[in-house]
Amino acid sequence: xxxxxxxxxxxxxxxxxxxxxxxxxxxxxxxxxxxxxxxxxxxxxxxxxxxxxxxxxxxxxxxxxxxxxxxxxxxxxxxxxxxxxxxxxxxxxxxxxxxxxxxxxxxxxxxxxxxxxxxxxxxxxxxxxxxxxxxxxxxxxxxxxxxxxxxxxxxxxxxxxxxxxxxxxxxxxxxxxxxxxxxxxxxxxxxxxxxxxxxxxxxxxxxxxxxxxxxxxxxxxxxxxxxxxxxxxxxxxxxxxxxxxxxxxxxxxxxxxxxxxxxxxxxxxxxxxxxxxxxxxxxxxxxxxxxxxxxxxxxxxxxxxxxxxxxxxxxxxxxxxxxxxxxxxxxxxxxxxxxxxxxxxxxxxxxxxxxxxxxxxxxxxxxxxxxxxxxxxxxxxxxxxxxxxxxxxxxxxxxxxxxxxxxxxxxxxxxxxxxxxxxxxxxxxxxxxxxxxxxxxxxxxxxxxxxxxxxxxxxxxxxxxxxxxxxxxxxxxxxxxxxxxxxxxxxxxxxxxxxxxxxxxxxxxxxxxxxxxxxxxxxxxxxxxxxxxxxxxxxxxxxxxxxxxxxxxxxxxxxxxxxxxxxxxxxxxxxxxxxxxxxxxxxxxxxxxxxxxxxxxxxxxxxxxxxxxxxxxxxxxxxxxxxxxxxxxxxxxxxxxxxxxxxxxxxxxxxxxxxxxxxxxxxxxxxxxxxxxxxxxxxxxxxxxxxxxxxxxxxxxxxxxxxxxxxx
Length: 712
Prior knowledge:
Elements: H1 5-12, E1 18-20, E2 23-25, H2 31-103, H3 113-122, E3 126-133, E4 138-141, H4 154-162, E5 167-169, E6 173-174, E7 188-197, E8 203-211, H5 213-227, E9 230-235, E10 240-243, H6 259-267, E11 270-276, E12 282-289, E13 295-302, H7 303-306, H8 308-315, H9 320-358, E14 362-367, E15 375-378, H10 380-386, H11 390-393, H12 411-420, E16 424-431, E17 437-448, E18 454-463, H13 465-516, H14 526-551, E19 562-563, H15 564-575, H16 578-581, E20 584-588, E21 593-594, H17 598-614, E22 622-631, E23 634-641, H18 673-683, E24 688-692, E25 698-704
Parallel strand pairs: 20-22
Antiparallel strand pairs: 1-2, 3-4, 3-8, 5-7, 6-7, 7-8, 9-10, 9-13, 11-12, 12-13, 14-15, 14-18, 16-17, 17-18, 19-21, 22-23, 23-25, 24-25
Helix pairs in contact: 2-8, 2-9, 13-14, 15-17, 17-18
């Protein structure tokens, strides 16, 4: 308590006159009054002490209640998240099981890779999907870890026979993948399985998914970092599946002896309790069980953590007399701080209001604690964008903007975000006050109070009608172009097919005419007839190559396994004839298997070998070198010859369809072969190019994907 120096002097000697300067004065207060002040001060100190003690006790209970609310909310949200995750995996395994049953479990390798790859794209926490026959034979493995091996399914089959549920959640195993032989030290995998049954209900096998527990661990650790709460996922038998501590979590193993399983789960499927956690500490724990699966989510905050702020407040209070002094000083400081903070806050509010009044985006504030999230603030930009005045909008839920279409995409995301208390951004079609429609980009962000609860929601709106209309127009234009391109390609393919028959007839009739003219050599018509025959032959070949060029788009080029050694042998046998060409040397390097269909690799080698034979040098024997090596893009193949070569200015033009660098009389061909080669390589995800000095030969290089597993 601050005291005036004069008052201190008078209190020290109530009856004796005190000399202050050169003037003698009597004390202002008597001893009785001073005693009264002392009694009042002591009484006030006692009252403050009692009130403080009661307040501290109430604060302790409030801290515990707040921690209980936090654990309940976290347990509820985590349980919903786990249910969604398990439901997604269950649907995926069910679809794989149905497809496997349709294809038949007797098939050596069911065609499931495309389906499983598509599903795994949307379920990143599912590492691996296996299809295992009832005898343990692995028919399919999305991770290529156990395919072709055999697994012991006795325990899982027993679980499926014992449990009424179609989805069985197994015991975590070591390693990143199931059937990988324990590889992946420091990782765990949670196996989940679903039975593949025949029409009569017989179990033909299992679809097993390898769940990455780190997906749950990361969520739990994020919650722990944000709120200090420890989250765990258990099986109903007390086995911990994932915990915030990861592989080093102290609750590893079975927790059946803990109060959660020994007592509380036997009484209720959800609840909150205060008790020991098996580590010598007292925990505030909330738990919930999933509706469809035997799983339990528990979220706990240690009592020490929950009371940390409360204990800090207690440490500030030493004894009752100090409390009285601190209260007086505290009230003064609190008043000054309050006025200072209030003035600062009011200045900030005025500045914020001016800023919000001048921004081009619509801004709304809704009160989370009130019923139906009513709007309590809209800025002028909102009025300008929507046409609604602040008076007509305040007090209403913002759904009046889109209540004409309550099922549009994006509203479910908003509802989920509001329930979870997380920010969200969506694009909605809204309706203005005059009935006109506009596209709105809406961003919602929660505002939390001191206890972490959401108090308000701030919405920011942008009118993106022009952008949406432009995007829709662009999408339509793309669709029109794609449709036109598809029609043009189809027409070209059919035209090339139907033109071959007239060309053949023209050649045939010219041959017949030539035979009839053999008896009249003096007519001089043999040469024109022969030219017609040659032109018709070239036209047929050109149409056939055009059709082959267009057909590549209609056939899958990726996937499969092709032998480059077989492709090279077939091409050499077809185009290399030493009796006609003279000696030919073919040098073979590494000829691995490539990850494309065999037919496409055969066509590719035939084009390149035929090209080398056609453009061989007349002054030297033909020499071919064919091989491959490892490359960042897969396999790098090289087909090299010692022919006439290609000038550097034509290295790109040789791959253009119908582009010929030589006359048809000097060298045959249609000018489409290398274009087909480029299309095959690029459709497989690779690239092709040529290297040549223009005189000593050419080398065609191209990349192709490896086979799954990199088999040579």
